[in-house]
Amino acid sequence: GKVAGKNPWPATGLEWTIDSPPLTENFHETPVVDWEVYDFEHRPELGLKGSISKKPAPAHGDD
User: N or C, where is the chain less crowded by C-beta within 10 Å?
Assistant: First the structure.
């Protein structure tokens, strides 16, 4: 398939802001975080499909 871009999931974590492959120190200078790094807000404009469902019942022998 096609090669993915630098941040194909619009992720907000610091790991998506560094170069690939990363530098030995990861960042050119120490980053200052002034946002919620793991912002899991609902983003319907991304067109993501799927849902969260209840945990399945344990398989026989796992209870």
Answer: N
Q: Model confidence over 2-38: pLDDT tens digits?
A: 888 888 888 877 888 888 888 888 888 888 877 776 6
Distance CA 38, CA 14 (A): 9
Q: Considering the entire predicted model, what is its pTM? A: 0.42
Q: What is the dihedral of CA 37, 38, 42, 48, to 10 degrees?
A: 110
Tokens of 30: 């120490």
Cβ 38 vs Cβ 13: under 8 Å:
yes
Residue type for position 44? P
